[in-house]
Amino acid sequence: MLTHISSLIAIWLGGLAFLGPLIVWLVKKDQSPFVADQAKEALNFQIAVLIVNMICAVTCVGLILVPVIFVADIVYSLLAGIEANKGVYYRYPYTFRLIA
Predict the structure, then answer these.
(1) Residues in CB range of 77: below 8 A, 6 or more apart
(2) Is the pLDDT at 67 greater than 80, yes or no?
(3) d(CA 55, CA 66)
């Protein structure tokens, strides 16, 4: 759950939301398969959000889509945290998995 929620904290602190899941994945990847899987999933989602935000920032469409992406990032991260707390392997929608 911490890996999903850590991205929310990073959003408020400056927009580097991928750092929380990255740190959790690097520290816990050899200790727990569940935590490693969820950290990779959160990391992939946050990297996808970062890429989409960078693309939107250089286009005129970004004025409309960036707030939508911001809200979706918060909602999906909260849903993932709740599901991970239950012990469910959560998969983010609308993401591509760069880290396998």
Answers:
(1) 4, 5, 7, 8, 42, 45
(2) yes
(3) 10
Q: What are the residue boundaries of the structural domains of the chain, listed by start?
A: 2-86
Q: How many other C-beta atoms lie within 10 A of the C-beta of residue 20?
A: 25
Non-local CB neighbours of 56 within 8 Å, separated by 6+ positions: 62, 65, 66, 69
20-61 pLDDT per residue, tens: 888 888 898 889 899 999 999 999 998 898 888 888 888 877
Q: Please, are residues 97 and 44 in contact by the beta-carbon 8 Å criterion?
A: yes
Measured distance CA(40)–CA(26) in Å, rounded: 10
pLDDT at position 6 over 90? no
Cβ atoms of 10 and 82 within 8 Å: the answer is no
